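Incident log, entry 3
Record: Amino acid/amide ABC transporter membrane protein 2, HAAT family (TC 3.A.1.4.-) (341 residues)
Problem: checksum mismatch between cached and fresh output.
Input:
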Amino acid sequence: MFKFGSFLMTPMAKYLMLAFALVFPLLAKNEYQVYVMASAFVWAIAVYGLNIITGFCGQLNLAHGGFFAIGAYTLGLLSSDYGWSFWPAFVAALVMTAGLGFLVGVVSLRLKEHYFAIFTLCVGFIIYLLMDKWEELTHGPIGVRDIAAPYGFGLVDFTNTVPFYYLVLAFLVFAIWFMGRLSRSLLGRTFIAIRNGDELAESLGINLMRNKILAFVLSTTYAGLAGALYAGMVRFIGPEEANINHTFDMITYLLVGGIGTITGPLLGTVGIVWITQSLQFLEEYRMIIFGPLLVLLVIFFPRGITGSFLGWMHHKRQQPQATAKRQASKATAATEVESNA
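Fresh output:
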């Protein structure tokens, strides 16, 4: 019998999702829908970065939106104020976010649990204040305009929406591929061991500080990558890109999709972005709608959509074995009763 749940876990399902993403511009009703999907993909890349430090390593980084903004501002300022072309500025944005991620990680990761979260919340707010008040560097509330778009080396024009969509899709596919390889690697298992408990990880000989910093740097690099792509897409950025609300939005995407999973960040981000677009006429009441939905999600699907589905699949696979063990136990008990009689 065909089982749809099992089908979702096969490579064929992944190829079908990729095929749908490839043909989406042909199915979209207008160019704006292509833009919305490209924007969702950009945010999904950032959420995958949050998944590394929070989902795999168990550290709640509330400055993630700030590093997203650092990537965007690095590319924007280098291209707008200093005349850099997109790709060199893009590489510089990755290096900048990775470097700052290392410095912040060295300091913040000495703290644990909610102390770490509070510290990173303060870091995120400081990043926002610097971008809003340091007018000589960031242009303050005016923001950065005339940001360079990616150039296609004479082969493609990325200033158009559809080519840029495919560019973002390529980076998203790479981000998911890297996440999958990471989750199956020794390093990924090391991150998960740290998430399960520092004492347990130390007893296994894991260097906590080194691995936490590495997870933090990888996470911020993902955020910088997404921020740089965002700057190249919208061509204008302001201090609001560092607003703490973006971090909470990304946490929401991660929780809805499934924290610590591979497909969860993508499903959560794309799903909520499109729901938000569909409910634009209720924008003022968005939190009134999403608030109760999130509460229900936490109650009934605490592991998110993907995590709950994987748990259900695991339970279905284990159920025949459990049934067989119960039947064997009953048969053994009946045999013992007969022998005693």
